[in-house]
Amino acid sequence: MYDVLVIGGGPGGYAAAIRAAQLGGRTALVEAGLIGGACVNFGCIPTKVWHRAAYLAHYLKTASDFGLQAALGRLDLNGLKARKDGVSGDIRMGMEGLLKNNGVDVIAGRARLEGPGRAAVDGRPLEAGKIILATGGTLAVPDVPGLEEAVLTTTQALDLTSLPASVLVWGAGPIEVEMACCLAVFGVKVSLAAADSRLLPREDHDTSQRLAQALRELGLELLLGYRLESVTPAAGAFTARLTGPEEKELTVERVLIGGRRPNPDGLGAREAGLKLNPDGGVKVNEKLETSVPGVYAIGDLTGGWMLSHAATAMGIAAAENARGQNKKFPFHLVPRVVWTIPEAAAVGWSEEEAEKQGLEVETGSFPYPINGLAMCRGELTGAVKVVFDPRQGEILGVHIVGAGATELIGEACLVMQLEGTVRELAAGFRAHPTFSESVVDAARDALGWALYLPKR
Questions:
Q1: pLDDT in tens, 370-386
Q2: What per-residue confidence (pLDDT) applies to 105?
Q3: Cα dist. 177→3, 210, 344, 401 in Å?
Q4: Strand order from edge to edge, sheet including 151-153
Q5: What average pLDDT does the chain have?
Q6: E-state strands within 225-357
Q7: pLDDT digits (tens, 9 = 90+) for 400-436
Q8: Contact 316, 134 (CB under 8 A)
């Protein structure tokens, strides 16, 4: 019998298993596929290799602005795929080694929850004092007539050895936006369409607007507020029929989808008595406990933001609770990052969300075009926005579009984790010239004393 049984070997399950073992628990991890899950094998890591290639290609075009005469050659997708597979393989091998190093028993197979303290792996029973569910998410395929024949999943796209000339990307979430950006930089004619009225609909409105404008400048066609009605073959390509502000027909070679949903399928969730959220995710409380005693759930399986770093942090908290601690997971501190050109990132509430909560809300912002490093590098698109409650100075959210946004958001996460106020952030200083200065300058603008902006 195990003290802790973890079902699922992605970033969340991996972290949970190692943390439980560190705390002295006899621990097993069950995984039906590759260790590392979606993140390592066909999600976060592979797409960041793509983003790096797109970033280099994009900025090579501006080399002449810095006195460099350089020419961009053809894109070698076989070389890019080899790089992607190599990085994923190295990380996966490291994860497998660390599980072994920490004494975690890794069991290959598909697990099914049988009830409190009980599971079965391919029919073989296992018992554990506590069980942590970490089966992640799966592709959400829209129910659109004819789509199946035309569909290109993000996993398939990352293994392409030749690019389609044209693609319709369906969806306005982070995955779809990232893939659309890379494909456009690689020279594909990209149309991004979605039922949502704006990009990244869960993020701050200003973030959506800034990123939409940047993507249009990269050559993307944005069709927001549309429905994808049907996809039909058309002379070696496909015709996608869209309805919305007007009816449209697009002829494209493929239709790319990347949306994901929680993956309780095959886990025996309902049969075991697990309550589910409306989005299909397993319902948990702030300690990540499910409705079944002794059973925890983490990561994409619980729905929400569905981000690998959230899964990792949830895995740590669940493991600590499974070993007798009393940890509450800070859902409000989950950072969100989007690897586009430029990048986008956020933590906390958007201005609209804070207002819906009935809070008194004020904001401050600082544009990239007057940041010294942005000017030096020619990366002028973007801004930092701080949302706060003026009564106590509580920082409610920080939203960044611009170069380095995915790293800068860590500053906001830390100050919010330590319950720092906007006044304390504004009183700080950073090295010059750096992008991080803009975070402090946005806080100063929030308080009305920005040094590098005109008086309000």
A1: 999 999 999 999 999 99
A2: 98
A3: 42, 13, 11, 14
A4: 151-153, 254-257, 166-170, 189-194, 221-224
A5: 97
A6: 227-234, 237-243, 248-252, 254-257, 260-262, 295-297, 336-338, 344-348
A7: 999 999 999 999 999 999 999 999 999 999 999 999 9
A8: no
| Closest of 178, 162, 137 to residue 254, by C-alpha | 162
**Across residues 143-155, what is the average pLDDT?**
96
Compute the distance between CA of residue 243 and CA of residue 227 in angstroms, rounded to an integer.
5
pLDDT digits (tens, 9 = 90+) for 18-31: 999 999 999 999 99
**Which 3 state secondary structure label does DSSP give 312?**
helix
Question: How far apart are the C-alpha atoms of 89 and 64, rounded to whole Å?
Answer: 37
CB of 339 closer than 8 Å to CB of 406 = yes
Per-residue CA distances from 327 to 6, 71, 203 (Å)? 18, 54, 27
Closest CA to 343 of 102, 146, 11, 58: 58
Q: Is 354 exposed, middle or buried (0-12, 13-18, 19+ CB in 10 A)?
A: buried
pLDDT tens digits along 197-242: 999 999 999 999 999 999 999 999 999 999 999 999 998 899 999 9
* Residue 50 to residue 54: CA distance in whole angstroms: 6
Q: Is the pLDDT of residue 266 over 90?
A: no
* 279 vs 251: CA distance, rounded Å: 32
Residues forming the active site: 432
Where in 299-393 does DSSP place strands (E)?
A: 336-338, 344-348, 362-367, 383-389
Q: What's residue 230's pLDDT?
A: 97
| Separation between Cα atoms, residue 109 and residue 242, nearest integer Å | 42
So what's the pLDDT on residue 270? 86
Q: Is the dihedral of CA 164, 170, 172, 174 positive or negative?
A: negative
Chain CA centroid to CA 385, Å? 20
Asked if residues 343 and 405 have their Cβ atoms less than 8 Å apart, the reply is yes
Listed residue (346, 380, 384) closest to 363, CA to CA: 384
Q: Which of 418, 417, 415 is nearest to 440 (CA)?
A: 415
Residue 228: CB atoms within 10 A of its CB come to 24
Sequence letter at residue 430:
R
Q: Both tokens of residue 400?
A: 């960044």
